[in-house]
Specification:
Layout: H1 2-25, H2 32-55, H3 65-82, H4 88-109, H5 116-133, H6 143-163, H7 169-183, H8 197-221, H9 227-235, H10 237-249, H11 255-284
Helix pairs in contact: 1-4, 1-8, 1-10, 2-3, 2-7, 2-8, 3-6, 3-7, 4-5, 4-6, 4-10, 4-11, 5-11, 7-8, 9-11
Length: 285
């Protein structure tokens, strides 16, 4: 029960990133780039503290660091720009689906030969994303917002692929944030745009707590979970984000979103869990 409680807390934290970002930039409390920069700096500070407290230090080098930093920057800024228009749940769903598609493509480029079920699942997830992105689909925020979140999903997928080479996930994440934070100042230029105290507070909360502490908790509990359980748990994030958007921000929950969610999440579940299930079934027969 304790592990379940920790996992539930982490999934809520991940979903809260969408709700916090939408509440800040969607309401015009802060400019998207400024939100992303503050989120990165707050996350870097929290993760650096945790790395020193739990690992005794912070190593900035390591395999996959350049790809990790670039992927993180693409995720942070694409995420922020998308939520100027996208509802919380829709944004989280596009992000989650695109991460899985990107990781699938990365596995192919890396020489892996996925089984048929993984191909079918990835195809379903991609079809669901196209359904949402189509002009007559459920992407109420417009093409620019959808493409910004697609870029964020590709960035996080690249980040995840680079992270496979890390021996210490928490230390690697802390290093990526610390390196990316000063680089993130470049897009701001000399004018950071309009900022309010509320917008800054939401950005700090998203960076330090729902990102920094959330990632640290996830990496602490992940070794205790079966891979299938971890994958299923992450399927809940878009739905939690959608619920948060409805309850806290008054966002609508459309039939198109629900149907596309079933296609995307079903495809991801089939891709991630299907091969394991059938392999387990065949080995037990």
């Amino acid at each position: 029960m304790r592990i379940f409680a920790w996992v539930a807390m982490v999934m809520v934290a991940f979903a809260a990133n969408s709700v916090l970002n939408r509440a800040a930039v969607g309401a015009g409390l802060i400019e998207p780039v400024a939100f992303g920069v503050i989120r990165l700096w707050a996350g870097a500070a929290m993760l650096a503290v945790l790395a020193f407290a739990l690992r005794g230090g912070l190593r900035l080098g390591g395999a996959g660091r350049v790809a990790g930093v670039l992927g993180l920057l693409a995720y942070i800024f694409g995420f922020s720009w998308a939520y100027v228009d996208l509802p919380s749940g829709l944004g989280a769903l596009i992000l989650f689906g695109m991460v899985q598609v990107t990781m699938f493509a990365g596995s192919l480029l890396g020489g892996e030969r996925p089984p048929l079920l993984r191909w079918v699942g990835a195809g379903l997830a991609f079809a669901g994303l196209m359904w949402l992105a189509w002009p007559s689909g459920g992407a109420s925020g417009g093409l620019w917002a959808v493409m910004s979140m697609v870029a964020a999903g590709v960035g996080w997928g690249v980040y995840s692929l680079a992270g496979r080479k890390a021996a210490d996930a928490l230390g690697s994440t802390a290093a990526n944030f610390v390196i990316a934070a000063p680089l993130a100042l470049l897009p701001m230029g000399v004018d950071p745009g309009p900022m309010t105290g509320g917008g800054i507070a939401l950005a700090v909360l998203s960076g330090a707590v729902t990102s920094g502490v959330g990632y640290a908790l996830w990496y602490a509990v992940l070794p205790r979970l079966d891979g299938a359980v971890a994958a299923v748990a992450q399927l809940t994030v878009p739905m939690i984000a959608a619920l948060g958007g409805v309850l806290l921000l008054g966002e609508p929950l459309t039939a198109t979103f629900l149907m596309a969610s079933a296609v995307i999440l079903g495809g991801v579940a089939l891709s991630v869990l299907g091969p394991r299930y059938f392999a387990r079934s065949s080995s037990g027969s």
